[in-house]
Model the fold of this input.
Amino acid sequence: MLAVIATALAALIGLAVLAMGTTGMLKPQFYMSFGIPDTPADDPVLNSWLTVKGGRDFGTGLMLLVVTFLGATSLTGWVMLAAAVMPVFDGLIVLRAKGPRAAAFGVHFATAATMIVIAVLLLLA
Done:
């Protein structure tokens, strides 16, 4: 039962990251609500970097879904644990840029913590 619950949670994370990546590639300003300090939304350089982030998120979500549905539970756990470093770095970037601490801790670090918990559940299953 633990394996089923943990796998479903991993799939939800994968779907959420895939959806964020899709949205970010189509509308890069979507990421402005994730803690980037005030920057003109029409800045073409910023939009290019945000689109890159969208592609990274899309690929990450896709990888999480592939390993969740085609890999062993333990493999999914290790991949989820490895992938948790990305929101940690996202949170550190927000803090370094003097962005809102609420976004760094409430979004990015909370996401990393959730992914770590799911990884542990998958490894224990």
In short: Residues 2-124 form one domain.
